Amino acid sequence: MRKLKKYAAALMAGLIVAITGAVNTGAAEVAVFTDGVRYEGEVRLVNRNAYVSLREFACAVDNSVVSWDSRTHTAHVSTDSLSLSAEMGGEYLVANGRYLWCSEGIFTDNGVLYVPLRQAAEAFGFSSRWIGAENTTYLSRRTGSIVSAENYYNSDDVYWLSRIIHAEAQGEPFLGKLAVGTVIMNRMADDEFPDELYDVIFDNDNGVQFTPTVNGQIENTPGEESVIAAKLCLDGYRFSDSILYFLNPELASSLWVPQNCTFVASIGGHDFYA
């Protein structure tokens, strides 16, 4: 199980590199091919990330119907196998119920909505291959669009991850919720902790790891942000690949973590450590 998870993490890292690896400020034009055909749409570079017009990309790669909801400032894309939404100013795409993080956000320019190429390609069901010598990304269509949420997320994992995020970070910023979820996912991939999500959350081999598991707060119904944060983490988001611990320095009763671990970041009321 651990080997499978580590392989999956490496595979996801490879996918990120495949599309963003050559996106450099001032670099040569990035070419994109979809199933051997040159993509003629605009490719923008935003902090080393490739961005495309959602409407232009969707219509180029599939028989897509694209609409705009002016009330919610959200674009909707529909095909025979994909339902996708992207909110202006948002931080993620929702594709067949899956949540795909957009590190530089979703933005508009001159009335055009731009989304990251990597997430858009994943939503439409493309695998990718980066050829650095050519400064080119090759997208190859897999069977169908992105696997739906019902067939991808483990319902028990969503249940428990969203609850521990809510219990630990319900008053924290959204990024703080994502960081708490990241700690759980990083522990699953670390040899020092259990392999399964439930076992990580309820681990007490070296003492209780998460207080909400013993004071009952783990049973509280999570808010929408906590559920979304859980799904983003289950879909590969990581605030940091190294963080394994967090605490509120004003409430912590033990100083073992700050005395023995490496400080990484503070978000809201929590400090995160590797």
Give the arrangement of secondary structure elements.
Layout: H1 2-20, E1 31-34, E2 37-38, E3 44-46, E4 49-53, H2 54-61, E5 65-69, E6 74-78, E7 83-87, E8 92-95, E9 98-101, E10 107-109, E11 112-116, H3 117-123, E12 126-131, E13 136-141, H4 149-152, H5 155-169, H6 174-189, H7 197-201, H8 212-215, H9 224-234, E14 245-247, H10 256-260, E15 263-267, E16 270-273
Parallel strand pairs: 1-13
Antiparallel strand pairs: 1-2, 3-4, 4-11, 5-6, 6-7, 7-8, 8-9, 10-11, 12-13, 14-16, 15-16
Helix pairs in contact: 5-6, 5-9, 6-9
Description of the molecule:
There is one protein chain. The protein is an alpha+beta fold. The protein is elongated and about 60 Å long. The model is unreliable at 1-27 (pLDDT under 50). Helix 5 crosses helix 6 (174-189), helix 5 crosses helix 9 (224-234) and helix 6 (174-189) packs parallel to helix 9. The protein has 10 helices and 16 strands. The two termini are 23 Å apart. It has helices at 2-20, 54-61, 117-123, 149-152, 155-169, 174-189, 197-201, 212-215, 224-234, 256-260, and strands at 31-34, 37-38, 44-46, 49-53, 65-69, 74-78, 83-87, 92-95, 98-101, 107-109, 112-116, 126-131, 136-141, 245-247, 263-267, 270-273. Strand 10 (107-109) and strand 11 form a beta hairpin. The protein has a 5-stranded antiparallel sheet with strand order 5-6-7-8-9. Strands 2-1-13-12 form a 4-stranded mixed sheet.
